[in-house]
């Protein structure tokens, strides 16, 4: 089945916890042969938009939602946190007919009343790995759901006493790759490109200063040793200078780091950029700041690329094996109106 697992916790209180419990459920579900997508809303800025993107792109057959906190446990006055989960569930309902199954610490304390309040179809109290797998099996085979440990069904109550796994070693270990938190890493400072609106020059200067690729790889190796699996290169332009990007990718490939990473590309000479080497070195997504489809606006922003250069970025990254994420700003001022000219250009990209 296509299973979308969503961690509903978006609370910034205290530290930001990674959704460990949902990760455990995801790995058990994947091991049972299902296709799993994982969405951590703590990492998302616009929650309704993220839900829409995830659900429309995946068309899940079942949605599992992890509920972590009921309240903030403050003495005066406590903040009730299920209201925001309820609106996330309402949003899922609008976007998909898939049944919604709840779980997590914040669900398990009052499973019956939380199910009613939140308006989901079902909920699993307690440890989710085994009962969720069994639930999917029964749903897939159209079997009655009675007997699934800790399962509550809306209007039908508890289906089977909850169970505790005695031998935790029987459960799979969570998968660090499912955590979407990206560790920032900077290899260069400064940017000479001089785009008219940009403040980078006043922050970092206009000369590109670089760490050596060997030093960067030493840093990444240290991070990998601490279990970090995903990086974001916060360099203003990962592909400039091209020779440095090439060297860095070569070093990363040589070190066999097996990490996934994202970066930002300047859409000039992307053909010449080491896109294949980037993919081989673990790049899974590149953001391309192309800003506009209007030559006039590009010129007024002092961009050094043209519509043609942007169009040329289209095939290489997907061909290289990772998706491109384009960053348009369309138009800027009343004196530069050709948004209408830029729009079809922008919409022409996947
Ligand atoms: C460690 C911990 C913390 C640490 C987190 C550190 C970190 N980096 O992760 C710290 C101290 C920072 C913390 C902070 C807070 N915490 Co806290 N925390 C815990 C604790 C002890 C363990 C959580 C954990 O990781 N469990 C391990 C995982 C594997 O278990 P799990 O998440 O429950 O997942 C299992 C099942 O629930 C289920 N499951 C989970 N998701 C799903 C989804 C589906 C679809 C299904 C079917 C099943 C399922 O399957 C999983 C595997 O078996 C719990 C208490 C507890 N024992 O649950 C409290 C707990 C979760 N915290 C709680 C609270 C309130 C808070 C704070 C609001 C407190 C505060 N004011 O600071 C903050 C919130 C932070 C935030 N931004 O969200 C409450 C939440 C309930 C409530 N009362 O609202 C709990 C339950 C404590 C309690 N007993 O009341 N917390
Ligand atoms: S390329 Fe990016 S960082 Fe450099 S000046 Fe332009 S907008 Fe700023």
Describe the structure.
By secondary structure, the protein is an alpha/beta fold. It folds into 2 domains: 2-158, Cobalamin-binding domain (Rossmann fold, 3-Layer(aba) Sandwich); 182-347, TIM Barrel, CATH 3.20.20. The chain has 14 helices and 14 strands. It has a 7-stranded mixed beta sheet with strand order 2-1-3-4-5-6-7, sandwiched between helices. Helix 1 crosses helix 6 (129-140) and helix 8 packs across helix 9. The protein is elongated. The relative contact order is 0.08. Residues 315-320 and 329-342 have low confidence and may be disordered.
Question: How would you sum up this structure in a few lines?
Answer:
This protein is α/β, with parallel strands linked by helices.
Q: Tally the helices: what do you get? A: 14
User: How many structural domains can be distinguished in the coordinates?
Assistant: 2
> Which spans of ≥5 residues are poorly predicted at pLDDT below 50?
315-320, 329-342
Strand order across the biggest sheet?
A: 2-1-3-4-5-6-7
Name the overall outline: elongated
Give a count of the beta strands, DSSP E runs of length 2 or more: 14
N-to-C span: 26 Å
Under CATH, the homologous superfamily of the largest domain reads Aldolase class I
CATH class of the largest domain: Alpha Beta
Look at the structure and give the mean pLDDT.
Answer: 87
Q: Tell me about the biggest sheet?
A: 7 strands, mixed
- Bound ions, cofactors and other small molecules, one mention each: cobalamin, iron/sulfur cluster
What is the CATH architecture descriptor of the largest domain?
Alpha-Beta Barrel
As a whole number of angstroms, the C-alpha radius of gyration is 24 Å
